[in-house]
Amino acid sequence: MNVRRILSLAQSGALLPYALGRFATVRKVYSRLNGLRYPLDRRTSRGPVNDPIFPAVDVVRAVQELREDAVAFRFDLPTPLVDEIHDFARRGLCKSSGFQGHRPFEEIASGQTIEGQRLAMAEVINPLGCDAIRRIVESEALRQTCMRYLGYQPPKADIRLFWSFVSNLSENERRQQFQTIDYHVDIHDFNFCYAHFYLTDTDALSGAHVMVRGSHTRKPLTWLIGSARKSDAQIASRYTSNDVLTIEGPAGTGFLEDTSCYHKALPPLERMRLLLQIRYH
Ligand SMILES: O=C(O)CCC(=O)C(=O)O
Question: Does CATH number 2.60.120.620 belong to domain 3-280?
Answer without folding.
Answer: yes
